[in-house]
């Protein structure tokens, strides 16, 4: 096993700083309100006379059953003393997904984290490392906070690249997707992969706005990638779950793999991600071929089982 019009961008955090939770709350509510059309929620549409995209604040307040002044204060980032019931009503009015509802709650009613919990969680249990080693023919890895790749097996290296050659701080999905040209070629639907990665980071930022490493990552990517800035400005959030990834592998060609996400019970900041191909499919044969090449596959990793710092 190895280790390891377009919306205007809002302010990005300085390296080592933190995300502005009030600004995040304000922009999140504004962008969710802007995407709803009046007719979608049973309100009259005044056509060209509307001066804002989506719903007005007073319309959203009416749907949520709160005063306009109250909702305005909330959208300005003042979530102090807001009740869970009010947040639930606003989430229903905005038609938020479960992930978006959770994100809204994290922003408006942040939990107080102990200082010892602020450190990044990079320790992976030995039994999980052994599990990855036994998953022959199944690309699998464990991802932590900020989309950091913590540990992976040989098949993951054969499919996604030799992560062991990267410095530990660069073993990160966001960095690779936006800053490494090879990953644009690897993922057939690169835009969707990029959108997903940004949505996961947004979710993480809502839970940990004071994480300096996350803030530094967002700041760096915002400077180096216009595509990242554009996607970050949408304020979309989602949890990684399951789906299909289509890739164009440099050795075996087209791969269509289903992925599953398993959150660890004893560390919710870590997830096990596995990929598999439909039995008897060309992708299954391609994986078998990669597995048979072993360390002769030029994209197979050669690192050792040590945790990233």
Q: Given the structure, what is the number of helices?
A: 13
- Secondary-structure content class: alpha+beta
Question: Which residues form runs of ≥5 with pLDDT under 50?
Answer: 3-11, 114-120, 298-309
Beta-strand fraction estimate: 5-15%
Taking the alpha carbons of the first and last residues, their distance comes to: 17 Å
Instruction: Please report the total strand number as a whole number.
Output: 6
Q: Give the strand order of the largest sheet, numbering strands 1, 2, ... along the chain.
A: 1-3-2-6-5-4
Order of helices and strands: EHHHHHHEEHHHHHHEEEH
- What integer is the average pLDDT? 85
Q: Give a short account of the largest sheet.
A: 6 strands, antiparallel
Q: What is the alpha-carbon Rg in Å?
A: 21 Å
Principal-axis shape equals elongated
Task: Report helical residue fraction.
Answer: 40-55%
